[in-house]
Specification:
Keywords: Signal. A hairpin with a 7-residue loop joins strand 8 and strand 9. The chain has one domain: Immunoglobulin-like, CATH 2.60.40. It has two helices and nine strands. It starts with a helix and ends in a 6-residue tail after the last strand. It has 165 residues and is α+β, with helices and mostly antiparallel strands. A five-stranded mixed beta sheet has the order 2-9-8-5-6, with no helix packed on it.
């Protein structure tokens, strides 16, 4: 009888637990379709893979100006790195990395290829441009792997929108 109660309890709670953890490895903010302005800060939240028995080693945040799902594999991706970070944890492998930011800076790409007036790369002005905010997270747990597991998340942003807010 007690086993039946446990089975019933598990069948009720399992979908709830799965629903609560299903957003791991996703960008929560800014949301898909968010309009962003050059030279501005936007809220940033990422749901890490790290939890009990799963270690998040670090995340790399990129703002791509071309589709990374195509460009990364052809060597023609464009954009800028926003940095490498690690979630506070007693088990991550690089404690010298800062915690992920709560806000990210949207560069002004008309000033230069990195959003800043430096180097030889000339900037370009764009309106209503599709951008890809991407996070690569290295993580491990729940079994063995040859190297860290990597999850990739991306949200599409609209850069320098001309649409009325």
């Amino acid at each position: 009888m007690i086993q039946l109660v446990y089975l019933l309890l598990f069948s009720i709670l399992a979908p709830i637990v799965n629903a609560q953890t299903s957003d791991r490895g996703t960008i929560r903010s800014p949301a898909n379709g968010t309009h962003v302005v050059p030279d501005s800060w936007v809220d940033f939240r990422y749901a890490s893979m790290g939890e009990y028995s799963v270690t998040s080693y670090n995340i790399s945040i990129w703002l791509f100006t071309s589709d990374p799902s195509v460009g990364l594999f052809t060597g023609q991706a464009t954009g800028v790195s926003l940095g490498q970070f690690a979630f506070p944890s007693s088990t991550h492998t690089n404690p010298s990395l800062p915690a992920p930011p709560t806000k990210i800076y949207i560069p002004n790409f008309s000033k230069g290829v990195s959003g800043f007036p430096d180097g030889w790369g000339a900037g370009q002005n764009q309106s209503d441009a599709t951008m890809y905010l991407s996070v690569f997270e290295e993580w491990g747990g729940n079994g063995t792997s040859f190297g860290a597991r990597i999850v990739y998340a991306t949200n599409i942003l609209v850069y320098n929108s001309t649409a009325a807010a």
